[in-house]
Amino acid sequence: MISAKKIKNKTGMTLVEVMMAIFIMLIGVEGFTILFVRTWNNNSYALEMGQASMAVSQGVNKMVKYIRGVRQADNGAYPVSLANDNEFTVYGDYDKDGATERLHFYKNGQDVLMGATNPSSGMPKTYPAGDQEVITIASYIVNESDEPIFYYYNKDYPGDIVNNPLDTPSSVADIRLIKIHLKINIDPNHAPDNIELQTFVEMRNLNDYDRIQ
Description:
It contains two helices and eight strands; from the N terminus they run H-E-E-E-E-E-E-E-E-H. The strands form two sheets. Strands 1-2-3-4-5 form a five-stranded antiparallel sheet, covered by helices on one side. It has helices spanning 15-68, 207-212; strands spanning 80-83, 87-92, 101-108, 111-117, 133-138, 150-153, 177-184, 195-202. By secondary structure, it is an alpha+beta fold. The protein has one domain (42-212).
């Protein structure tokens, strides 16, 4: 009687199968790496944007404080000197030294700056041309050329929305309220991801001029 022998085939991976497995694994690793890098970059961008917007907010709060406290210049000039889309000049004692400085707010590239100029020490008081000191108020500002950072309103706003905001350059005697509108982005290539900051400032001391008129 012939005994039947069971032949057990031992199966193994061929070289081609091994190479395919390695290739698939490498694709998976590469995909995970790309996903990780993109996630890391997005999180890093979000963190830096948050830090930048906080810094801008702090700078704008200072600017609001300075604008709110405008007053007549030491040479008798009106508290507001210039009001354009991206440039605003007023008088106020921003450093609390008793003298009334000329404060020149303006956009330069992606920065919002404040130029400060002290009056002369002699009499009559005068203000030299140009800014004696320049302070950075905000950085990473990406407003387009047709997107002003300053908007101006008269005493009839918000009741009168036909004549407000005022055309620029605005008549400084008409201004009672200012809107500051900034777009923030650490990387202009992420244009849809701009953070917008908007605030209104009332120049309280100008109400005295309304009572005099």
